[in-house]
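DM from R.C. (forwarded with permission)

"hey, sorry to bug you on a friday — could you get me a structure for this? deadline for the figure draft is monday and I only need the backbone to look sensible"
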Amino acid sequence: MRTVDSPSARRLIQLVTASAELMTALRCVQSLGLCSWCIGAGAVRNLVWDTLHARSPTFNSDIDVVFFDAELPPHRDAELERQLHSLMPNMDWEVTNQAHVHLWFESTLDRIVHPLGSLEEGISTWPEFATCVGVFITDDDSIGIIAPYGLDDLFEMKVRHNPARASADEFNQRVRSKRFRDRWPRLTIEEA
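My reply, with the result:
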């Protein structure tokens, strides 16, 4: 789903626009001129869950930028990371063209997966439904949202396995390594 008018979408937009750091990061990515992009995963999840735990949101210095452009070669991701780092050097940027993710799966994990057809499809494969959310700046300078599964899990603080690409073991290991329960004790975590 792209931005819809719902209470959760309005609340997410409020949280994003209130975060000076996230807005600066969004403007930096916007300056790259990518046609289909967002900042997603942990940056968005942490902002929402910190707020729902009545904590001052701490901006995650690990920023996942995803985009989709089948015309750009795979090595372009590293060049974009360098550009972003020069604009905002205190951030640990990770830029991934979703058009080439299948190549990474094959070379790194020795796993064959089908090529993705869009940015939304890429986001829809992330390991937890609550994390399958990205935000971007639209052409009219407002905040857009990409949330293939909606925003319920994110705002209801549910951690559920998305089996699209991650196995149950990978999901359970990820939940432990990210220390979700230690960081946000009010989460409901469903083991896969």
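R.C.: lifesaver. The chain is about 40% helix and 15% strand.
me: no worries. The longest helix spans residues 7-18.
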